[in-house]
Amino acid sequence: MGLHAELHRRSLADPAGFWAEAAEAIDWTRRWDTVLDDSAAPLYRWFTGGELNTCWNALDRHVEGGRADQAAMIYDSPVTGTKRSFTYRELRDETARFAGVLRSLGVEKGDRVILYMPMVPEAAIAMLACARLGAVHSVVFGGFAPHELATRINDAKPKVMVCASCGIEPGRTVAYKPMLDSAIEQATHKPARCVVFQRPQLKADLVPGRDVDWTAAMADAAPADCVPVKATDPLYVLYTSGTTGQPKGVVRDNGGHAVALKWTMQHFYGVKPGEVFWAASDVGWVVGHSYIVYGPLLHGCTTILYEGKPVGTPDAAAYWRVIADHGVVTLFTAPTAFRAIKREDPDGKLLATYDLSKFRALFLAGERSDPDTVQWAERHLKVPVIDHWWQTETGWPIAGNPLGLELFPVKYGSTCKPLPGWDVRILGVDGHEMKRGDIGAIVCKLPLPPGTLPTLWQAEDRFRKSYLSEFPGYYQTADAGFIDDDGYIHVMARTDDIINVAGHRLSTGAMEEVLAGHRDVAECAVIGVADDLKGQVPLGFLVLKAGVNRPHAEICKEVVQKVRDEIGPVAAFKQAIVVDRLPKTRSGKILRGTMQKIADSESWKMPATIDDPAILDEIGQALKSIGYAKAGG
Ligand code: COA
Ligand code: AMP
Fold first, then answer.
1. Domain 3-308+388-481 classified CATH 3.40.50.12780?
2. Digit-coded pLDDT (tens) for 483-527
3. In the chain, which residues fall in CATH 3.40.50.12780?
4. 536 lines ligand 1 (CB under 6 A)
5. Per the omega criterion (within 30 degrees of 0), is the bond before 447 cis?
6. 505, 508, 534, best to mutate for ligand 2 pocket (most atoms within 8 Å of CB)
C-alpha cells in the first residue's frame, strides 16, 4: 500500500488517533479532553477542552523557536511599486501592537471585527491581531459593493471595522472608505469604531469620534499578548455565496483549523518550514485566509502577499518575476490567472529570462482546471501542475495529487484522490451510492476532518438544511461529479445556483434578486455561460412588465449598473437580454440548466416536465443574437 493509501485508510479508520498525532505539531496552552467530540452528532467538534492561540502558533512560537529573523511575509505590490519584507519578529511586534489598538477600542475575546481591505500587509496584521485577542475577524473582499458589506455588518455585528483608504485596481483607484461609510449608513447594526489605514495614493476623510487613523493609533498603542481561546471558539467568519442574497457565514474554529492547515503544508503541498510559499489570491477569499495568512505562517514559511494581477501589472511575466525575486517554491492560484497569462504570452516566451530554479510545483483551485491550461503550464514550467478541489466551507483541500506524500499519474480533468480525512462518495438523488464512473452528488461522509466548518454563524438551522439534511450522515458539497475506477474524483458542476467567475464564487440567485428589483422587470433569470478567460460569466434574461416600452438597451444597461452597485464589480455582470417569456416546468421552475446548455452549445434533452417547448426556441434565437448558442441550439 502506498503512503497516501495507508494514511487515508488510517485517517478514516481512526480519525481521532490520526488527528491527535497531527495536533502534536501545534502549541496548546491546555491539552484537549476529547479529540473528536460526537456528542451532538451530526454536529461534530474537534479537540474539545483544548486551548490555544492561533496567532501564537503563527508568529510568536517561531520567534521563540529560532525564526525571529527569517522573513515571515513579503509584500510585493507592482501596482504601487512597493516591496517590503517583515521578519517573524517584526510581524509579531506589529501584530501585537495592532492587537493593542483593537483592545483600546474595546475589542475582547469573542467580539467580531470586520475587515474591508485591499492586499496590504495591514490586512494580514489585522487578521492576526484579532486572532491574538481571540476576537473573530470577518474579511470582506474589496470587490463587493457597500450593500454586500452592509449585509455582512448586520449579520456579524462587529464592534470595530478596519479598512484602508483605497485599493488599487489597474487603471483606477478604488476608494474604500466612502464605501465603508455607505455600508455603515445602510446597515442596521452600527459598529462603534473604525480604524482607517491611510494609503498615500488616496487619503480618506475620517468621521470624528468614530474613525481612528491606523498610524496614529499604532504610535500610542501598548502591545497585547496572546489570549488563549478554546479550540472550538471561532477564529473567523467568512461569508460566501449561498443560493440567495443572504450570504452564508462560514465559521472556522481555532484548534482544528491550526492542526489541519499545518498538516496540509507538508503532507499535501510538500513545503518545508523556511521555504517560500505563494498563494496568489486575495485575503478576502478562503484561499487567502488559509494559504496567504494562516497555513504558511503556522508552518514557519515565508508567505508572499501580492498586490497585483497575473497580467497587466505590468505584463504576463509578473508571476515569473515574483517567483524569481523571492525564491518561491510553490505557487497556488486559480486556473483563470493562467488562462490570462497564456492568452497574452501563448508560447511562454517571457519565462525565459527568469530564474525559476527553486520553483517546484503549481497548484490550481477555485474552479475546474481545463486540460489545455494545465498542459500549457506543465509544458512551460516543467514542474508538477496540481489541480485540487475544495470550498470555503472545507477550509483546505478535499482532493488533489498529494505532492507531499506521493505523486500519482495526472488525469486531465480530474482533481485526483481524496486527501486523508475525506471519505468522498457519489450519491444518486435517492441517496444510494452510484457506481464508479456514474455522475451524482459529491458528498463526504461525516464526520468531516478538523478545520472544516462546524456551523454557520448564528444559523445552525441553515447549516443543517444546506449541508446535512438532503443526505443524512453526509456533508453535501453541492458539487456533482464521479469517481473513476482508479479512485480519481472528477468534479463536473455545481448542483445549485452558484457560478464560478474567474475563480470567484457567485450566486445567480443573488443577482436575480437585484434584477427583480428594477422597476421595469417582471421576471428574470441569471445563468453562468462559458467564458474563455473567466471560466463562466453571468448572463441575465429579463421579461419586462406589460406596457414597458422603453428601449431594451437602456433597461439592460441599467440592470448591469444595478448589479455593479449592489453586489459589486466582482460579479462581472456585463450582459442582459430582454426576452418575451422564460422556459419553465409545469410547476413553474425556470429551466436555467437547459438555458445554460443551449447558450454553451452543449447537448441537451427536452425536459419532460417543460410547460411550453416553443419557448426554448425563442431563447435559442435570443442567445444567437448576442453570439451564444453558436452550434444549433
Ligand atoms: N477591489 C475592488 N474592485 C475589484 C477588486 C478589489 N479587490 N478585485 C477585482 N475588482 C474589480 C476589477 O477591477 C474588475 O472591475 P471592472 O469590471 O471595472 O474591470 C472586476 O472587479 C472583476 O475583477 P477580476 O475578476 O479581477 O477580473 P479582471 O477582468 O480585472 O481580471 C483576471 C481578470 C483573470 C486577470 C483576474 O480575474 C484574476 O487575476 N483572477 C485570479 C483569480 C484569483 O486569484 N482568484 C482567487 C481564488 S483562488
Ligand atoms: P469557493 O468556496 O469560493 O472556494 O468555491 C468552491 C467551489 O469552487 C466548489 O464547490 C467547486 O464548485 C469549485 N471548485 C473549486 N476548486 C475546484 C476544482 N479544483 N475543480 C472544480 N471545481 C472547483
1. yes
2. 999 999 999 999 998 999 999 999 999 999 999 999 999 999 999
3. 3-308+388-481
4. no
5. yes
6. 505
